[in-house]
Amino acid sequence: MKLPARNGRGIFPKQFCAVMLVLTAAGPVSAQTAEEERPISLKKLVPNIIDDQKPIWLFPAHLAMGHDLLPAALVLGTTAGLIVADPSEARYFRNSSSYRGFNRVFTGNATAVGIALAPISVYAVGLFTHDTKMKNTALLAGEAVADAGILSEVMKTATERVRPTDIPPHGNFADTWTERGVSSNTSFPSGHAILGFAIATVIARRYSNHRWLPYVAYGLTAAVCFSRLSSSAHYGSDVFIGAALGYSIGRFVVLRQ
Predict the structure, then answer these.
(1) Which of 66, 74, 84 is nearest to 27 (CA)?
(2) Rounded to an integer, what distance in angstroms lies between the CA atom of residue 170 and that of residue 119?
(3) pLDDT tens digit string along 154-208?
(4) Which phi and psi angles does 9 have, rounded to 5°?
(5) What torsion, rounded to 10 degrees, do the Cα atoms 246, 247, 252, 255 define?
(6) Using the 8-state DSSP alphabet, how is residue 181 labeled?
(7) What is the pLDDT of residues 103-121, one digit of tens each?
(8) Half-sphere exposure of 189 (CA within 13 A, CB side)
(9) For 55-95, how does the pLDDT look when each residue is reduced to its tens digit (9 = 90+)?
(10) DSSP assignment of 144-175
(11) Choosing a second label site near 135 at 20 to 30 A (CA), which of 65, 76, 151, 170?
């Protein structure tokens, strides 16, 4: 299949290919094995975040040794396929009025506040009830947010992808990469998706004995992710890679499962 051209250079400029190979591979799987829970406390939060950076940024070296190639290839391949489909999907949502009611409820600000309040609320309840597991879960979720936020900002700055809302309804949705200059208000990956799935994964796996909780955590996060598409804030590939990275950071890097 011939990919849509971008100024004669193809849809994957060199800079984007490098980011996809190095950064996207940082999250799909982990070189770490299950181990005893690290000490968790407010004082340990920053040191643990710093400790997390090594497995995140050095994962490509693990991949180069031939480990975990299949899951990495699946994530990269799915992302590439969604990028090819992004122009059609983005054009549909940009010109559709079918989701106005949904978008009025799941606004960007409302969902961002909800994501931020999730670990704060868990910590507050744990503090009030003297529940150490809840407090530690909230701290782990905060750690996952920091890890995911760092990775997200680096990727956003490197790819400089224009959001669908910044393109006219009948504009060129295939020409979206390296267009802005340095800015944090770029599209790839979805910040809501990577942060939401990082938090949801920590909570869902820490309380997997409550069968309903993973469904609620992932279900609400999926609704938030869909709102990023329906409101034309992101493309499908932005949301998918954000969800994959958030899940991976929460499970493999923070929980080390």
Answers:
(1) 74
(2) 40
(3) 999 888 899 999 888 888 888 888 766 545 578 899 999 999 999 999 999 999 8
(4) -110, -5
(5) 90
(6) S
(7) 999 998 999 999 999 999 9
(8) 31
(9) 888 877 766 676 677 888 888 899 999 999 999 999 999 98
(10) HHHHHHHHHHHHHHHH-PPPGGGS-TTS-TT-
(11) 151
CB 222 within 8 A of CB 242: no
> Rounded distance, CA 189 to CA 237, Å?
8
C-alpha to C-alpha distance for 126 and 144, rounded to whole angstroms:
18
Instruction: State how far the Cα of 32 lies from the Cα of 85, in Å rounded to an integer.
Output: 34
The structure's pTM equals 0.84
Say how far apart CA 72 and CA 29 lie, in whole Å.
7
C-alpha to C-alpha distance for 80 and 175, rounded to whole angstroms: 15
CA distances from 98 to 231, 234, 239 (A): 10, 17, 20
Burial class, 88, CB count within 10 angstroms (exposed 0-12 / middle 13-18 / buried 19+): exposed
- Dist CA 85 CA 239 (whole Å): 13
Q: What is the dihedral of CA 114, 119, 122, 127, to 10 degrees?
A: -130
Distances (CA, A) of 164 to 33, 109, 185: 39, 17, 12
Contacts of 198 (CB under 8 A, 6+ apart): 141, 144, 145, 147, 148, 246, 247, 249, 250, 254
